[in-house]
Design a protein that fits this description.
Bound molecules: zinc ion
Helix content: 55-70%
Largest sheet: none
Radius of gyration: 19 Å
Mean pLDDT: 92
Structural class: mainly alpha
Number of domains: 2
Strand content: under 5%
Shape: globular
Length: 252
């Protein structure tokens, strides 16, 4: 029951992630106006805006002009549903879970925007960070577990500091947007325990290096090309949840 609810919640928040991915890079409000078809401009009615279901019922086309609606929308929705489920399975239903789920959402939106436009908007990392921090402050107040908040703070500081240092030393190999996203993800990694920051960066840079070497071997990338790093940070963040599950959950 709990897991089904988390899956459903993920699909619904996936719909919100689509709004963020679509509007935040353009600097448009995420609350108004209501979504409309990018082709014919007709506002999308509530019944045609149900996550996943509407896309399937409309067979991926606008009701009015029949222009195809990108498969990215249902993919993001089902993707975040699966990610929420994954977090619930690895982290368990603890006080930390809501904040982890918020981080899942912010990270997915950031990774998608970074893939598309090679940047991570400040508006996303700022409000995402506020959302994640609020969830963890609430969790720590509810459980009286103050140490958890302290770990989260350390996570945010190291999460920002390490990539910031690399950004400064590498002069553009990594951007400030990456460091800010890493701060937000670090808040959540810190909750799992400070040592998981080590696994987080190990996995993130591991994935990034593997991908980079793979692309160079395939000659799709030269040494000078830059990679969008947000997706690797996000992959590192998701993987560290599994690492935590394997190493700590039984003893926590
Ligand atoms: Zn249309």
């Amino acid at each position: 029951m709990g897991f089904a609810l988390v899956l459903l919640l993920g699909v619904v928040f996936g719909s919100f992630a689509n709004v963020i991915i679509h509007r935040v890079p353009a600097g448009v409000s995420i609350s108004t106006p209501r979504s409309s078809c990018p082709n014919c401009g007709v506002q999308i009615a509530a019944k045609d805006n149900v996550p996943l279901i509407s896309w399937i019922l409309l067979r991926g086309k606008c009701r009015f002009c029949a222009v195809p609606i990108s498969i990215r929308y249902p993919l993001v929705e089902i993707g975040l549903g699966a990610i929420f489920l994954f977090s619930a399975l690895t982290i368990g239903f603890s006080a930390a879970l809501p904040g982890i789920l918020v981080t899942d959402l912010v990270g997915l939106a950031a990774a998608a925007i970074d893939l598309e436009s090679r940047r991570i908007p400040n508006r996303l990392t700022l409000w995402g960070g506020v959302g994640v921090a609020t969830a963890f402050v609430a969790a720590s107040l509810l459980t009286g577990h103050v140490l958890m908040l302290y770990y989260s703070f350390i996570g945010g500081a190291i999460g920002f500091g390490f990539p910031f240092l690399i950004a400064v030393l590498s002069r553009g190999g990594m951007g400030m947007g990456d460091a800010k996203l890493s701060l937000v993800l670090g808040l959540a990694v810190g909750i799992l325990g400070p040592k998981y920051l080590f696994y987080f960066f190990l996995l993130t840079f591991g994935f990034g290096s593997l991908f980079g070497v793979g692309m160079m071997v395939a000659r799709k990338l030269s040494r000078k090309d830059s990679l969008a790093f947000g997706p690797f940070l996000y992959a590192g963040f998701l993987s560290v949840q599994l690492v935590w599950h394997l190493l700590a959950s039984g003893r926590a």
